[in-house]
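Complex 549.
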Amino acid sequence: MNVERVPTQPIPGQRPGTSGLRKKVTVFQQPGYLANFVQAIFDSLDGKEGQTLVLGGDGRYFNDQAIQTILRMAAANGFGRVLVGQHGILSTPAASCVIRKRGAFGGIILSASHNPGGPDGDFGIKYNTGNGGPAPEKITEAIYANTLTMARTLTVATPDVDLAVQGTSLVAGMAVEVIDPVADHADLLATLFDFGQIGTLLRSPGFSMRFDAMHAVTGPYAHEIFIKRLGAPAASVMNGIPLPDFGGGHPDPNPTYAEDLMKVMNAEGSTSETAPDFGAASDGDGDRNMIVGRRFVVTPSDSLAVLAANARLVPGYAAGLKGVARSMPTSAAVDRVADVLGINCFETPTGWKFFGNLLDAGEVTLCGEESAGTGSDHVREKDGVWAVLFWLNLVAVRGESVEAIVRDHWQRFGRNVYSRHDYEGVDAAAANGLMAHLRVQLATLPGQRVGDAHITSADDFAYTDLVDGSVSTAQGIRIGLADGSRIVFRLSGTGTEGATLRVYLERYEADAAKHGVPTQEALAPLIMLADRLAGIAARTGRKQPTVIT
Ligand code: VG1
Ligand code: CO
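Predicted structure with cobalt (II) ion bound:
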């Protein structure tokens, strides 16, 4: 094999964020940008020689080109085999599944997830380790350090591999196996859920569902699972063909961006023909989910709590849960369930990489984030289609609507009224200034009364990993009130333009008579307090959030 050494120089700014490296497509298209980062990944991997790498992405613009580059570099760097999804497609949870099932050394997933795609959109790349999960910070920091000293990248001069056809070919002696991107994942999901009972529900004339793939990666998965294996009518899947620019949309499954689905689910009328009984959507790379009932949206934090409380109704979790974990800004609804079940509930920083060690150690079975991510120990990523099947399984067993299941949950456990306000694309200096302004107040806030609010705690969240002892600091400002309410402030680690400020608001309501109060109304005093403490409007110039979930 003739390995070419291509001289290069370090490129600044290649530090992975919450979930891999995300930049504008135009940045990734700069000469050497992708190759430098890929080489930095490969240089951080000891023992990769002759090993298997999994490779695929969410099908967005630049996906196919990047795959060809990475295949050549993998060969030059000594991998023995690469498993690549047909047409370059692999959803994030499917990649995790394939890495685990095939005993791969690791995987590279090409995605900027919920960020828009297309020539002017975003691109992203992340490395997953042999457990199938996102590389922990120790590895992402080693990759970043490599980018700062990069002097050469390794490649081979070989023609493109035909990604349209399944089968094995050779790139400079390395085997490239183009695999079915759906089969392994669908087979795994079939072992966890009662496909018989879900199929009966989906085929019954009195029930209808819509799954909105948002022109992103889950289209082929939804077709195979909901339509082919479970027999749902073809119309059950919307926007099911992956497009390089996601049809111009923003593939983030929330009520603002999943417009097509919301229009259908909010239709007036009380039959399956007017508004379907069940709706769901998934994001760019298929790891997020939104669950919607007829004119009723399930808050992701509530969804996690409902799944935990009902897990025994589902075959894969019939033996019960070992424990649960949630990211820090996620509401404490699941904590209440864990209390009742008598199991541990872990609180981790934002990002799925922090769940990996807990899952590997057998400490937890279910994990979730307020950002529409839920998953379990079946893979090491959050899993959108998995969450939809879990909910369908519950609806099939309980014979109740989505709304009835959630209201019953609130009745039992009380309601953690919850919302996240995002201020997207704000000036980075203003956002950093806002966080610094909050940090200097941390020592003096506890004990203060601001209006009606009695502040009892204030800190910057730090986390020590239970398994490897690694410490992550500055993970978000938490402000707690005497009545159990909470405000969290953090800056996004996935954006590509300016800064995104996220404000997470939570209040516990035990009184069932007040569970119907609209969320933003119930949280109004906290919303005002957040602005007062952080000076959001004054510092960012924004009077309203860009997105409310
Ligand atoms: C966001 C979410 C976080 C999620 C991450 C990746 O991160 O808040 O919960 O794990 O996206 O999700 P941030 O740093 O922007 O808040 V995905 O589906 O975009 O890979
Ligand atoms: Co995603």
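Residues 18-19, 113-114, 283, 287-288, 327, 350-352, 369, 371, 373, 492-494, 502 surround alpha-D-glucose-1-phosphate-6-vanadate (ligand 1) (CB under 6 Å).
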